[in-house]
Automatic annotation (TrEMBL):
Belongs to the GSKIP family. Residues 34-134 form the GSKIP domain. Transmembrane segments: none annotated. One of its GO terms (cellular component) is cytoplasm. The gene is Gskip. It comes from Sakesphorus luctuosus. InterPro entries: GSKIP (IPR037395), GSKIP_dom (IPR007967), GSKIP_dom_sf (IPR023231). It comes from the Eukaryota. This is GSKIP protein.
Length: 140
């Protein structure tokens, strides 16, 4: 089998991956579905938080990935991404705390909405600006 060096950021969004194909990133570790999903989550909401990135310390697998997020209020969280959704697994980067029994959220928007009033405000403003832009487009 052939191994390929691939930066997930260079992949087109509509690429379909076969179940048994191997994709490796620049560190030589396998990039699986949840890693790519986690990168997409980060890209979706990075503008509305202080910092957000996929953990390079905690293991990514086909069924789980970890995302570090720092809200605009300067609160740090480590999020677990699985098929069940996203949930807080620690109150710092690159950590997991098995004693934490936090609820799963279906979307990153819902999770961040519950954690960060500043996120809610920034995201809402971005949405309003986008709607205004669409309104202007449709009127021209």
């Amino acid at each position: 089998r052939m191994e390929t060096d691939c930066n997930p950021m260079e992949l087109p969004n509509n690429t379909a991956f076969e179940e048994d194909s191997d994709y490796t990133d620049f560190e030589g570790t396998e990039v699986k579905d949840m890693r790519l999903e986690a990168e997409a989550v980060v890209n979706d909401v990075l503008f509305a938080v202080s910092n957000m990135f996929v953990s390079k310390t905690l293991p990514c697998a086909e069924d789980v990935a970890y995302i570090n997020v720092e809200t605009r209020e300067r609160n740090r969280y480590c999020l677990e991404l699985t098929e069940a959704g996203l949930r807080v697994v620690a109150y710092d980067f690159d950590q997991t705390d098995d004693r934490l029994q936090t609820p799963y959220h279906e979307t990153v928007y819902s999770l961040l909405d519950s954690l960060s009033p500043a996120y809610r405000e920034v995201f809402g403003n971005a949405l309003l600006q986008r709607l205004e832009a669409l309104k202007k487009e449709s009127q021209s």
